[in-house]
Amino acid sequence: MVLEVKKHMQERRRDLTIDHTSGTDEGRSRWARLRKGRLLLVMVLLAGMLALSWVAGCSCQKDEQTPAAARPVKKVAKVVTCPLCGRVVLDPAALDRRPVAIKVENDPAARPQSGLDRACLVYEEITEGGITRFMAIYLDREADPVGPVRSARPVDIDLVFPYGALFAHCGAGDPVLVMIKQAGLLDIDEFGWAGAFWRTSDRRAPHNLYTSAARIRQAGDISYPFQQVVSSPFKFLTDVGVAKMVKARAAEQRRAASAAQNATKSATQSAATEYQPTVAVVNNVVIPYESACTVTWSYDPATNTFARFVAGVPHTDRISGRQLRADTVIVQYVVEAPSGLYDVNGAMSPELGALGSGRAQVFVAGQVIDGNWQKSAREQHTRFYDNAGREVPIKPGSTWIELVPTTRQAAVS
Prior knowledge:
YerB-like fold; 31% helix
């Protein structure tokens, strides 16, 4: 548009120049009008250009600001994990309830048991005659059925107390029942809550008593309403942390194989003696309970879990038929002493010192971390530390804690 106006003005100027040079009054008048018109036109054009530049500037500024202002805010879903096992929970409501702790027997006549594979964590403890017994604790997952259920022991009080769990069992010796009441445990004894348990006809008593996590909660929720937050007994590894441990284990195995090969080729054993592992690789862990209850945990690299064997055979779940597995195994060495308390058959129950401190071994991701455990008060969780005093993080998932007398030693290979 500006070029057309300029061309038109040049033609008019040429015509008027002729008139002006002609010396006529009319020509000079037309020349004056042309100059005035040109001045007005220039002013109009300048004003228009300023207006256009302002509009363009506003438009650019708007274009630059609009994407940031209109950009949708991405809502990142919060990952909710179970405080007892570290597993991701799809329904957070599953955590808004009390944990359930159930005593399960391990007599050979009670195998295979039901529901141990659904627990967040399982404690194994020695009872009379060297036979072990379990205390399985549940929160994020239901378990139905669980059993066979058997009686409580003195060490259970210190173990279960910090979880604030409903404690399900089938009786106990009178002194132990008094201790449970005095400790203020949320007691769901089969003798007082018969409706929360049932007996099956395919096994002989006393190896046929069962319950479920849901039934125990139904029995206990009215008497013991849940009004607290479940605290975590462990520090959990991230997925990245687990992957790093798996990678470190594989690298250590390659180093060990290379050192062994070099030692074979060498005339001396210097290559073997110079090799120093950076991580302690584990393939098998043998827990030296009595022969009927001796446990072997065998590391499976394909699943990054430890498979459980008892008395030399795979330990399976009765319902699923699958072998029991643990993501983390902890050996907690405790002092065993006579308790002066007797079971219904007259056998003395051993006292297992779960308060205080002692040595511990944490088996995770195919490695063993030596350290110690500490529990200075009944209401505190047992914490596990390495030899540098740092709390040992464990793999999310199922955790088994083996209470082993200090007079015995787990065999690691």
